[in-house]
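Researcher: Here's my situation. A collaborator sent me these components and asked whether they could plausibly form a single complex. I don't have experimental data yet, so a predicted model of the whole assembly would be a useful starting point for our discussion.
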Amino acid sequence: MIKSGFFERNLKYLFPLPALLFVLLLMVFPVLYTLFVSFTDWTLTSGRPMKFAGLGSYLKIMGEPRFLDAVGRTFYFTIGAVLAEAVLGTTIALVLNREFRGKNTLKFILLLPLVATPVAVGIVFNLFYDPTIGFLNYILSVLGLPQSGWVTASSTVLPSLMLVDIWQWTPMISLIVLAGLAGLSNEPYESAKVDGATSVQTFVHITLPMVMPTILTAIILRAVDALKTYDIIYAMTGGGPGYSSETLNILAYKFSFEYFNMGQASSILVFLFFIVLLFSIGVTKIRKLFEL
Amino acid sequence: MKRILAVLLIVSLSFVVFAQGASEAPAKQQEIRVLLANHPYGELLKPLIPEFEAQSGIKVNYESLQESQLTQKLTTEFATGSSTVDVFMTRPLQEGLLFIKNGWYGSLAKYDFGDYPAASVDLGRKDGVPYIVPLVIEWQVMYYRKDLFKKAGVKVPTNFVELEAAAKALTKDGVAGFGSRGKGAAAVTQISSFIYNFGGNYLENNVAVFDSPEALEGFRYYGRLLGNYGPQGIASMSWENLMPVFQAGKLAMWTDASVFLGQVVDPTKTNIPAEDIGVAQLPAGPNGDSPFIVTSWGMAMSSKSKNPDAALQFLNWATSKELAVKGMLANIPMSRDSAWANDTVRKNMNAELIATQAHAAKNGYPLDRPFMSAVGQARDLIGEVIVEAIDTKGTSTRLPALATEKAKAVNELLKADGEYGGK
């Protein structure tokens, strides 16, 4: 029974082993490999084997005007979309936190955008946005308003894409905040009532501070996702017109799968990785302030 | 008992993780893996594959992918050395050089190329070894609305001056006079004929020359046409955006590849009766009359194939004379010479389309993009010049400087890949 004794003693290591292997193979390895490739000059178009290039890929990328533009756009998109989602999502959650008829139906309808496939959403919105045969410009013309180029004009493409992101992801923030609201204790509200606080005062001084950690959690989750947004942008504009909706993820995709410049593509991704990491650490710190 | 269960659980869970990598049971039957494109020819092949399987006893596992995803999948599999592909559809002008350079194509020295135009085979040849079987050809045509032309009293344009006048006359009542791809990189292939007809080119002896005065005229003319008479948002439109506009009756003329005729006249997709849709050759320019005519798709074998004999057998079948005729009858212009000589084909194909093909075959130019390994990045660079030309309706004062800057960047790419100035 020596053999089974070994299993008995090491069960605590053996049970998590499959999960651990899964994480190592499918999560840790790709990140490390990307990091490794980012220090090489690997391109497929040259037909040469990869060679260590130190920070060469990083320097080349830093000197590429499209990279700096993409960094700016990534932040613009994320901040714009997530702020709007946070405000709208919290408002909707506050409304849904009350009792009224048809509340469950409304909740159900709000859930629908969340379960839609982003690429399909992108295609449908492209039909809405089409400047010639699309629905939105038709509405504008019926109302006598000037028509917009939507995703086909470089000045409106990012706001148009943000609108899609807001449409799809506001419900997620609502759901998280709603769960937070449901968990609040009643006592502070009762004392506030006794002290004669108005509803605005109750909201600003009690509800908001108490639910803030939840809102921030929702913002972190959303922002990390928004920084990495790829599907709707790729499906709707592919980074265009020109490069005007090219975010870091789209740029990395182009460098890897259209230009086959793996070294530079990896350095873009490593950069994005650190942005997401720093951002998460930052917001987690802010969140701690509210928990005290 | 508990221990045994625990061990079993661990083993079975580990199997789930490693199942993908586990070796399969020894095959009694030969099997090959084929990657097809979402292209009319791929669609034609799919239902016929069981016939091949019955005849040859070879099992064919096929997958069908959109063209850019196909390139991506092939590249990823080959570059990581994990490929199990045996036969695949390939775009000679887009990925041919890249794949040849990396040694991903298998040699087709055993294939009979007698029935193909020599120039189309040579594009996929290196050091005397052929690597790509030309499959489908594509040339530039102009789809137009016969009814709108008649109503406006305009004749089908035969040169660029008439084309511009016609575009102007036909732009009214919510209809755009002229459309062609405006989305940067995608437009590179469609503007190519315009640049050739002004006497310009993308590369000459593997040096970028699209900043020459002739080429610049081409950019300006294209920008002027699309900026003034194109549908709204043209600078971000590719064929998939232009086709529905044409089908909805909002576009009078549309220049694009010949391959779309079938879809343009498909009564389930368009509001316009087929007799109102005409196909004409691209009008001639001041310095040329050379629409592109290219091998848009080919078929190739993987150099890593573990079943080269079965793969070659499939390739021979999939590119056979009989299937080429079937393709032609389904409105797919095939590379094989014999398919064009076939009587049934000549009787059944659109006569206007045959006429444009004859013109392009005689006068056309066999490239529609810069022929280089880094073609993807080069197309984006040239696309910037196109978008600038369209946005300014061809009047941009910084166009020459921009074109020179981008030509320099394309030359850098050529140099980095060891292709600059070579033959």
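Model: Some features of this prediction you could bring to your collaborator: Chain A is about 75% helix and 0% strand. The radius of gyration of chain A is 24 Å.
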